Amino acid sequence: MRTTVGIIGGGPAGLLLARLLHRAGVDCVVLEARTREYVERRQRAGMLEQGTVDALREAGAAERLTAEGLVHQGIELRFDRERHHIDFPALTGGRTVTIYAQTEIVKDLVALQLAEGPPLLFGAQALAVGKPDSDRPVVRFRHEGRERTLTCDWVAGCDGFHGVSRDAFPAGASRSYAHEYPYSWLGIMAEVPPSCDELIYARGERGFALHSMRSPSVSRLYLQVPNGTDPDDWPDDRIWDELAARFAIDADWTLNRGPVTAKSVTTMRGYIHEPMRHGRLLLAGDAAHIVPPTGAKGLNLAVSDVRALARGFVELHRTGSTQLLDEYSELCLQRVWQVSRFSDDMTKMLHAQPDGDAFDDRMQLARLRRITASRHAAAELAANYSGLPLPV
């Protein structure tokens, strides 16, 4: 097989890149190791920055998003049994965020890809990226029981943290930075209407809790738990009781309870790989970076990468210039580090520290009080949460 851009990974990053390239007339092929059923059911993030919504509209993939997405005007911070609303439009000049599950984005993009092209191969497991330093890199993959080769002008590694793309960087050509947080999230999906109109971030002595949603009838909630927690040790009633305790405020508010349909534990970590390009291999999304989920940035950061990558390929297609591709890694990493800083700040401000003391506790409260008392501090949070400017 032969193509201009070989895209490894059929998650939202790879599918959106393929869609943007296809609309610009750039030839590409997407290789996805899993089945269509698997990728369309895989539960991931659901909060979209303004820029992510704009990107999906630009790609012609926002029809259901526009009809079904839940537009949020801000978030709610809870601490000391108080509630504080952070008004995004008032603080950012009109920017909002939208709740629309990643599974639905994938369904929308897959349907468009299969209906209009370019080629999307499910069950195509990438084995290795060869000759990334040459003008004809190749992707070896296994599909329908036999090994095949995809020859490309460029390779986009959108295959996640455990994919093969990053392994193609030769020893000494890159450096990685990693951090493990001393706690995890126990997450549940519940068939119950949300108890709030916007996301609630709650900080307390018992630990952090987050109330999110996937639709008007499905709630998504999280609890801070110790690393190594087994979700089976948390029966449903224990989860609901703990959530109610952590969300408690001195006001008339009740947590809706309902059937728990899914339960899992997510480790908290940060990871950044530098650079994001080697030769004609370029990384995007989780293949290059992981952020803790507190700031809801993983999917949005991947979309930011993809928009910059698509611009570079389109510029090359139209003018023959590689300038934007040459600048891709440096520009994206500037944003990656700032988004990682914000996610780290949110995480450390809201989670109970296992080795913390009374001083750490009061410092967390001081940071939260500053955000709720200072328009400048609130505006900084709102600007970061709703989305920093894209690389230019």
Written overview of the protein:
By secondary structure, the protein is an alpha+beta fold. Helix content is 36%, strand content 30%. Strands 1, 2, 8, 9, 10, 11, 17 and 18 form an 8-stranded mixed β-sheet that branches. An 8-stranded mixed β-sheet has the order 6-5-13-14-15-12-16-19. A 3-stranded antiparallel β-sheet has the order 3-7-4. Strand 17 (277-278) and strand 18 (281-283) form a beta hairpin. Helix 1 (12-23) runs parallel beside helix 6, helix 1 packs parallel to helix 8 (298-319) and helix 8 (298-319) runs antiparallel to helix 9. The longest helix is centred in the C-terminal third of the chain and has 28 residues, at 323-350. The radius of gyration is 21 Å and the shape is globular. The two termini are 34 Å apart. The relative contact order is 0.17. The model has no long low-confidence stretch (mean pLDDT 96).
Keywords:
392 residues; alpha+beta; eight-stranded mixed β-sheet; 11 helices; 19 strands; 36% helix
Overall spatial form: globular
Helix tally equals: 11
For the sheet with most strands, the description reads: 8 strands, mixed
Structure class: alpha+beta
- How far is the N terminus from the C terminus? 34 Å
State the helicity in percent bands. Answer: 25-40%
The topology string of helices and strands comes to: EHEHEHHEEEHEHEEEEEEEEHEEEEHHHH
| Oligomerization | single chain
Mean pLDDT: 96
Radius of gyration: 21 Å
Strand content: 25-35%
Uncertain stretches of 5 or more adjacent residues = none
**How many β-strand stretches?**
19
